[in-house]
Amino acid sequence: MSAHDRWYVYRGESKEPNDLLFTVKRSSMIQFKAKLHVFLANNTEEEVCDFKVEGSWSERSCVVYAGDSPNIVARMYKKTTAQSVLFGKDNFSVTVYPNVDYAFIIALIVILDDINKESGAE
């Protein structure tokens, strides 16, 4: 994360500019629900985001959209099971649509979790 609420995601352990995969930034500084804009490494102008994440960690749900469109590429939501109720362990279901990289979606969910921990909204 940078001082400007921006997350940089690189290939492996690298921090080299040519290994940058994508960046994520909050759409605004003050948010009641998370709204993140995702820019792939080749989108240097950042006029339009490549993906958008909207959700609420407190509700344990989010939706990932393709660009600034209504086209959904992935969803995450809390799954209530007997085990989660009895043992207090959260279970999640993540639906990733065809032709979307699973690791990319998980990385976005990890960033959303990191934002939640920073805001103290656990």
How do you describe this structure in short?
The protein contains two helices and seven strands. The chain has 122 residues and is of the alpha+beta class.
Q: CATH superfamily, called what?
A: LURP1-related
Unreliable spans: none
Structural class: alpha+beta
Rg is 15 Å
Give the tally of β-strands: 7
Describe, in plain words, how this protein is organized in 3D.
The protein has 122 residues and is α+β, with helices and mostly antiparallel strands. It has one domain: Porin, CATH 2.40.160.200. It is built from 2 helices and 7 strands. A 7-stranded antiparallel beta sheet has the order 1-2-3-4-5-6-7, covered by helices on one side. A hairpin with a 4-residue loop joins β4 (51-56) and β5. The protein starts with 5 loop residues before the first strand and ends with a helix.
